[in-house]
Amino acid sequence: MAVDRLSYLLLSVIVSMSAVCRGTQGKTIQEIVGSPQNLQNGLDYLKKYSYVGDKMDETVVNNMIDPSEFEAIIRNMQLYLPDVDPTGILDDKTMAAMAMPRCGVPDPSGEGDETIGGRLRRFSHSGGRWEERTITYRVLNAPPELNYDAVREAIRRAYNVWQTFIPRDFEEVSSGQADIMMKFGEYHHGDPYPFDGPSGTLAHAFGPFGYGDPIEGDVHFDDSETFSVRTFDDINLFLVAAHEIGHSLGLGHSQDSTALMAPFYSGYQPNFELPYDDILGIQTLYGSRPDTPREKPVTVKPVTQAMQTTELPLVCQMSFDCVAYIRGDIFAFKEDRFWRVREPGKPLTPADGYKTNELFKGLPSGIQAAYERYYDQRILFFKGMEYWVYDGIVPLPGYPKLIANLSSDLPGNLQAAATWGEYNKVHFFKRGRVYRYDEFEKKVDEGYPYPIDSAFPGVPKGLDGAFRYNDKMAYFVKGKYFFRYNDITKKVDEGYPRPFVADFFGCNPNLYIFNGVNNTDYDYFGMGNDNGNNGGSVLSINFIFHILLMFITSLAVSS
Q: What is the percent of the chain where pLDDT is above 70?
């Protein structure tokens, strides 16, 4: 894009002058943007995708914006860029990502985002939905590189992606006005949003806003692009169409870079399956199709041989000090040992676990809480009034530090921590209270702490662990049991609590039969209390009595 010479000179001046004008976070405009060209390209991008208004150039040129505010705008934009950390700096990686092919629909501004269970969600909605049970669409033309029937077939498959999961049917019509009109066009093509030629904006769509405008729901493809079907060459029409149809149905862009509704073109995927973030978003709008699950349930590996003996593996006796989701695995810590599992029922560690110091050198025993930080993948461990930071398994120098260094509002002796870090929030738990911490603002959010039964109805206090698993459900561990919390229904799923070591570490579920799925007296096996002592280093007297009773019964039956 050509840069107007006068504008460029003005921007050069403001970048130079800003070197002596620092914002509240200590950075200047020059430090944030690097060069006048970066600033101009950045402003063009921010305006194009509605992060800022059309007069932002004037605002910057007249030095009417605090550099820290501009940094925050860039950081919000970076949340939607693939493989870019939200640093607030227009570095080379950010500028390269901004130049990638993408959808022309603006990204959510981040203002007024809704929350689920006290946490921001990744997917977003554009403001409406179709009430009709059957939605019609019409393909008006085809690009020169593809025949019309190939285009229709690719678009039919794109509609099927969504139809599988929601109670709506899509019907193609060949004449007249359809609910969704689909066409290929170049540059100025009949709406107020002209395309920009090859390799920029691939397509755009209009949501079902409910204003009665005939353009609502329509999809436009940039005919300057070269589209393809069932090949890795050029731009895959099926994938672009499926993304734009998501907008036509009411979805906005997602910050989940693996989602179909992420803004950027991700390339041809021969065996494409709709990611869970997109399923969650579309079913929040329309509900689920009959016989289609709303969420991916955790599948439990069956125990093939019952263990009716008191000589239990150590892991099956455990109530853990800390349970966290780190680097794609569940880590469970107890005193100076840890256990690790990736898939339910398939532990990666032996029954006796491993010494914590064998993996995390220098980490003390008795860790109480831990989580993986979203923006740099570093791991934070908490014990007492202190915390440690590790880069993978390497401890960072200068730690431990006081938890109060994170925020004076955070207490010590935390009982659990869980991050929905794509929104920069960490939830800390202690004694029935939830502290929501903002990673970028470095403070506890206003209004917190909340009572846990208000933030997460049905989740008990006195937790030993909390994490968000790869099915994107929230899991809360207390003693030997865990609760799966559903963000959509805002309650604990039916059938919970369940025995944690049985479902995740393959222990015999019959040993925990007294709990049952309807029994709320989950402290029966010494699940812990609200003072942070979970009493899980040995089996409780009631538990031992239960095992002895089973043993005596088996002798009586065999005799």
A: 78
